[in-house]
Design brief:
Blueprint: E1 18-23, H1 30-33, H2 44-51, E2 54-57, H3 59-62, H4 67-76, E3 82-86, H5 89-92, H6 101-108, E4 119-125, H7 134-143, E5 147-148, E6 151-152, E7 155-158, H8 167-175, E8 179-180, E9 182-183, E10 198-203, H9 216-230, E11 252-257, H10 265-275
Helix pairs in contact: 9-10
């Protein structure tokens, strides 16, 4: 289970299947190193969504929002932009997951469909102490709706206990076509086995001493991995429990620079996106 960096391919074409960004858009330090001086706080999402191609929303984890909020986000962001929504903690932070049906329904029917085509994956994050119990976890996965208001839903689980590093878990997630978060954080289990039809990475090891959070070589490596995922391949240098097929169908890829030295997250995401040929819309 090594993390060696693969050779980068700077000449590879940009891949429109890959989206990248940060967690949220309201963070005080970003007002001095990301947002233009004097930008009204009410326009921070508008600006961020034109420098990045996706944002993972954490606020939906802590409370229920109104449909009008999702509609406002839709209208303030450009075509092609996407939001990943972290689902309600009341659904995942419980002893018996099979009893989460009401909380799951309350979240998925809270108006998230107002995001329309900008609705990306829904992230179901579990506490580090949540152990994999196959029957109960399957009961939870069976509760996840396939659509809401006629719009298909994509689900990804962020599991944080080493008991999930199991072929039984992989088989279960694949049966329900639910993706699994890959993280580079040392404090959580890291395994890149794909269990859904898209790849989802949360990069949490940015360093405050680096302007872009990660070394250039590390960003080159992540850009190459994203290209491989998007093309239907599997990066050979990431830790995995099982040997993966060498090639599959092209897939969507979501990469978020999140946690770690959060003040560096926007610069990290923009540097990563630039390696894939993405240009901020205000510089087109």
């Amino acid at each position: 289970m090594t993390r060696a960096s693969p050779p980068a391919s700077p000449s590879a074409p940009a891949d429109s299947r890959t989206r990248a960004g940060v967690g949220g858009w309201t963070f005080e330090p970003w007002r001095s190193n990301f947002f233009p001086p004097g930008l009204p706080h009410s326009r921070e999402l508008e600006y961020a969504s034109r420098q990045l191609s996706a944002i993972e929303v954490n606020g939906t984890y802590y409370g229920t929002l109104k449909p009008a909020s999702f509609k406002k986000w839709h209208d303030e962001t450009p075509d092609g932009f996407m939001f990943s929504l972290k689902a309600s903690r009341y659904a995942t932070n419980r002893r018996v997951l099979a009893e989460a049906g009401e909380s799951i329904q309350r979240f998925t029917e809270s108006g998230i469909s107002e995001l329309g085509e900008k609705l990306g994956p829904i992230v179901w994050q579990f506490m580090p102490g949540k152990v994999f119990e196959p029957e109960d976890f399957e009961a939870f996965l069976a509760l996840l709706p396939k659509q809401v208001d006629g719009r298909a839903l994509r689900h990804v689980v962020d599991v944080r206990h080493e008991s999930f590093m199991s072929p039984d878990y992989l088989a279960l997630a694949r049966r329900y076509k639910v993706a699994t978060v890959f993280t580079d954080a040392d404090k959580f289990p890291s395994f890149a086995d794909l269990t859904g039809d898209f790849a989802y990475a949360r990069l949490m090891m940015s360093e405050a001493s680096l302007e872009t959070g990660y070394e250039d070589a590390a960003l080159d490596a992540w850009a190459e991995r994203a290209r491989q995922w998007a093309a239907g391949g599997v990066p050979a240098d990431l830790p995995a429990l099982e040997e993966a097929p060498s090639q599959g169908k092209p897939r969507d890829v979501f990469v978020y620079f999140i946690n770690g030295a959060k003040e560096r997250a926007p610069a990290a995401a923009m540097a990563f996106l630039s390696r894939l040929g993405f240009r901020p819309s205000d510089q087109a």
